[in-house]
Amino acid sequence: MIRVLGIETSCDETAASVVMLEDAPAGAEILSPRILSPQILSNVILSQVEEHAAFGGVVPEIAARAHVEALDGIIEAALADAGVTLADVDAIAATAGPGLVGGLIVGLMTAKAIASASGKPLIAVNHLEGHALTARLTDGLEFPYLLLLVSGGHTQIVRVAGVGDYRRWATTIDDALGEAFDKVAKMLALPYPGGPNVETAAAKGDPTRFAFPRPMKGSAQPDFSFSGLKTAVRQAATAIAPLSEQDVADICASFQSAVADALADRVARALLRFRTDYPDKAEPALVVAGGVAANRAIRETLERLCAENGFRFVAPPHRLCTDNAAMIAWAGIERLNADMADTDAFDFAPRSRWPLDEVSTPVVGSGRRGAKA
Q1: Rounded to 5 degrees, what are φ and ψ at 198?
Q2: Residue 118 known to bind ligand
Q3: Which helix (H) or strand (E) holds 233?
Q4: Binding site annotation covers 10?
Q5: Cα–Cα distance measured from residue 327 to residue 122, given in angstroms and rounded to the nearest whole number
Q6: Positive or negative, the Cα torsion across 12, 48, 15, 303?
Q7: Which is deepest, 123, 184, 238, 287, by most CB within 10 Å?
Q8: Is 366 inside a domain boundary?
């Protein structure tokens, strides 16, 4: 069996996890990950919501300091919860990017120290690859599949053909969806974190009251755009200020409805393309991952879309949608199994920008630090 300790510190969650992959039964022919048996032995997550709430968003310096203070204890708790010692672990996997560089330094340097002191292999993991491969941990999904990655920093449709084999089919040309949720929450004076609070308010609102635009809907261009929708929300809120509690709920519901419709339109194009590229795929699947994948309205809309198009809909449990270390440990196991792990990554430098698909031409955000998406 393989046991990997995963460490995640890319933003405002300090997390550690031990994931195990058992060997197939003796004599079994390994044709599918379903024959194997992955288990999350522990998954410890410490949120920093309270530290950042007063500022309405994540403060990088505060986040990095909190990681320094908490990480050792979180790792000890993860090992204890898993019922193992460091000697029982086969490798250390840590998020090396993308993310807030201060937090990445804390997690990766801690992983380097543990790996060096214990003589264990070190695997530097792309945080986005963790999200991309989580469905194989939770659902035993086989390659290839389609991934909708929706988080605070990324909104992409990616074809996942294998470990390390990713092609970006669409991305946002402005704001990421999670960023748009957070900005709408700030406009409406909702507390941090914005996404869950917008969803909570939307549950009490009328999604038909405001006719917000559905950005890019019907466009031949495959990408996303949320900046114009965010502007429309601001204009609507300003026009009826001061806002009542019901006004806020109606704006949130209308915004969320517009987002779900826009996503469905963009994803529908990708489903058609996937069918064309893989006509013999018996069970095509759409995976929705990232923090925004926890939004129930978005899940339900995309689940209906998949049912209408003959696709299997896969979304990890909510606790594995947001940042966590189990997905990092699993990505390390996947790379070990594929003989693609740089297990001597002691000279790997944290990367604040690290595209999942490093081949496709960046749409926005390229600079000295590299391409954002």
Answers
A1: -65, -45
A2: no
A3: helix 227-239
A4: no
A5: 16
A6: negative
A7: 123
A8: no
Confidence of residue 370 (pLDDT cuts 50, 70, 90): low
Residue 371 in domain: no
Residue 365 pLDDT exceeds 70? no
Name the domain count of the chain: 2
Q: How confident is the model at residue 36, as a pLDDT?
A: 58
Cα 159 to Cα 132, 168, 283: the distances in Å are 10, 6, 15
Given a contact cutoff of 8 angstroms between Cβ atoms, the answer to whether 372 and 357 are in contact is no
Residue-wise pLDDT for 94-103, tens only, equals: 999 999 999 9
Q: Is 100 annotated as a binding residue?
A: no
**Does the annotation list 57 as a binding residue?**
no
* 15 vs 19: CA distance, rounded Å: 13
149 in a labelled binding site: yes
Q: Binding residue per annotation — 158? A: no
Residue 99 marked as a ligand binder? no
Q: How far apart are alpha carbons 98 and 130 in whole angstroms? A: 11
- CATH number for the domain harbouring residue 324: 3.30.420.40
Instruction: Check residue 27 and give its pLDDT.
Output: 45
Q: Is 150 annotated as a binding residue?
A: yes
CA separation for the pair 181, 301 (Å, rounded): 17
Cα distances from 52 to residues 49, 120, 270, 292, in angstroms, run 5, 35, 37, 19
Confidence class for position 62, pLDDT limits 50, 70, 90:
very high
